[in-house]
Amino acid sequence: MEIFSWVSVISIFLCLFASGSRSIENFHQAFPIVEPDPGHTKLRLSREGLEAIERITNPIAAVAVIGPYRSGKSFLLNQLLSLSCYEGFGVGHMRDTKTKGIWVWGTPIELDIDGVRTSVFYLDTEGFESVGKSNVYDDRIFALATVMSSVLVYNLPETIREADISRLSFAVELAEEFYGRVKGQDVAFEPAKLLWLIQRDFLQGKSVQEMVKEALQHVPNKDGDKNIDVVNRIRDSLDIMGDNSTAFSLPQPHLQRTKLCEMNDLELDPLYVKKREKLKELVASIIRPKIVQGKTLNGKEFVSFLEQILEALNKGEIPSTGSLVEVFNKGILERCLKLYSEKMVKLVLPLSEQSLQDAHERSRGEMMQVFDEQHFGRHHAKKSVMQLDEEVQKVYKNVVLANEYKSSKLCEALYTECEDKMDQLQVLRLPSMAKFNAGFLQCNRSFEHECVGPSKSKYEQRMIKMMGKSRSLFIKEYNHRLFNWLVAFSLVMVVVGRFVIKFILIEIGAWILFIFLETYTRMFWSAESLYYNPAWHFIVATWETLVYSPILDLDRWAIPIGALASLLVLYWRCYGRRKHGSRWLLPLYSNHKNGPNRPRSD
C-alpha cells in the first residue's frame, strides 16, 4: 500500500513536470510570434513562434506580406508555400480579421543563396484599417515587418492609393537613416527589399512598374496643402530605395473568392497559376539572409534582434526611426564612451586647466571620429550624439574634480614645504641675507614650476603673502642678530688672538670691531642709525662674502670648520712649537725676562 502511494506521488510529479516543460512537437503549422496587447495599441512577443525560430541554426531570411485587411495576404502566403488553406495560415472571410499581430510558418523553406544554406521563414501580418484598431498599432505592425524581413511584399488590391504611399513613410525614414551608409562599412541591418504586388486583372496597357512609377509622381499642390506636401516628400524619398524595390502584378485567381480554399490549381485561372510561379521565382531571386551589423543571424540571434526592435517600437506613443537608431547606436555609444574614459584615465594629474581642456578636446575628437565612422542613422543620430556628449560631460566633470583635488594636494604640499623652509631660514646660526634670498628664490621657482592645476592661483596668493611676511620678518631681525653676533664674535677673537693664538693683529682687529660697534651706538643713541652707515654696509658685505657663497655655506660648515681649527691650534700649541719653534708665527708676545738668552744668576 505504501509502495503504491509513493508511485502515485512520483507519477503526479512527473505529469506536472512534463506539462510545465511542454515543447512544440509539430512545427508544420502557423505560430504567432508577435501579438497585440489587450489595448490593441502595442505589441508583445509570443513564446510559441519564437521557439519555432530559435531552433534554426542556419542563417535566416524572412518574407513578410503586408497590406490592408481582407486583401488576401494569408491566401497568398499559402500559395507561395504550396499549402492549402486547411494546412497553412488561417484564411478568414468574415469582416473581422483572422490574423492578429504577426504569424510565422513553423517550417522554413531551405534555399541555397550564394552558396549559403539559408532557412526562409514566411510571415503573415495583421491587415491595416480593420475595425477596432488605432493607426499607431498599424504603424507598429508595418514598422516591425519592415525591419525584420528580408523581402517585404506590399500586397495591394486593384490599385495604389494615397494612404498606401503614406504608410511607406516609416520605410522611407529607415532608408534615409540606414541605407545611406558609406560603402564597405557595416550597417545596422540591411533593409528589406520592397516588392509592390498589385492584384489586378487589367493594367490597361501599362506594365506594373509603370503603374507604380505613375502612382509615385508628384501630386499638384497649388493651394499648399500640408498633407499633400508630406506625401510628396515621401514620393521623393522613395527614390532613395532605388533598386531596392520592384513591382509585380498578379491577376485574380478566381471570380468566386469565397471558395478559393476549396479549389486546386486546375480550377484556378491558368494565368494566375503561371504568374504565381513567376512570383515564387522572383521572391527566391531577390531574397538574401538577414544581415545585422555585418553578419547573418541564426534562430536565437534573430529572436534577440526581434526583441530589441520590438522594445524600440513600443517606446513612446508612436513607433519612430529615432528609437531604432538608439537601439543600434547603444553599443557604439558604450564603446566610444569607454574609449574616451580610457584616454582620460591615462592623464597624469594634476594638469593646468588649459592642458586638461586640450586633452578633453583631443580625446573627444578621437571618440567622435570613431562614432562618425561606426554610428547608424543620419538625421536621428543627432540624438545619439547629444546622449554621448551628456555622458562625456559626466566623465569630464569627474576628471575635473579629480584634477582640482590633486592640484590642491600638490600645491598644499609645496606651500607647506616652502613655509617650513622660510621658518628654517629665520633661525640660521649665522644670519645671511644671501642665503635667505637664495632659499626664497628656490621656493618661488619650485612652487611656480611644480604647482599646476586650478588651485595654483589660490595658492600663489597665499605664497605671496607668506613669503612677503617671512622676508619682512627676516630683514627686521637680520641687522639686530648680526650686530649681536659681531659683538660676541669680536670679544671671542680678542681672547683667541691674545691667549690662544697669541697673534696681536687678530686681537687688534677684534678690539677695533668691538670699539666701533659699542661706541657708535652710544654716540648716535640707537643701533638702527648704525645700519645706514657706509662702514656697516662694508661690514655686512664682508660678512655675507665669508658666510655664504655658492661654494661654501659657513652656516652649515661652521661647527666642523671650528672643530678642525681648534684641533690645529691644539696641535700647534702642543707639538708644533717644540718641533718648529716660534719662527712660524710672529713673536709678538715673546717674554724677554724669561727668554732663553737671559743671563743666569747665582
Automatic annotation (TrEMBL):
Family membership: Belongs to the TRAFAC class dynamin-like GTPase superfamily. GB1/RHD3 GTPase family.
Record has Transmembrane helix as a keyword: yes
Top-level taxon: Eukaryota
Sample GO molecular function, one term: GTPase activity
Keyword GTP-binding: yes
Signal peptide: 1-23
Protein name (Swiss-Prot/TrEMBL): Guanylate-binding family protein
Protein keywords: GTP-binding, Hydrolase, Membrane, Nucleotide-binding, Signal, Transmembrane, Transmembrane helix
